[in-house]
Amino acid sequence: MATRNPRKTKAELVYEALQAAILSGHIREGEHLRQEEVAARWGVSQTPVREAFRRLESEGLVEHAPNRGVIVRGLPWTPPPAPLDVIRRRWDELVRDPESIPGSDFP
To answer: How far apart are CA 11 and CA 37, in angstroms?
Structure first.
């Protein structure tokens, strides 16, 4: 039984390309995205670009600013700190305030 490979729409292709470029840093925070330029770059009409912009906006990667167009917001989250940084910070807290450990005889 053969499985069908559903073809992606033009809007999906543009969305995935823009999303990957933003997440990888190729399109930087604060950059303006012009609908006409994006459409020309990927050889599509402006309708799929508008759809892609809406999806990216719903994810918080871009925002539509009145009279300014679409602006890249960048990553909507901050990566978690490295585990050693967390351990170091907690150790510093414990050394400063040993009473913060409930039921402990930590000197």
So the answer is: 15
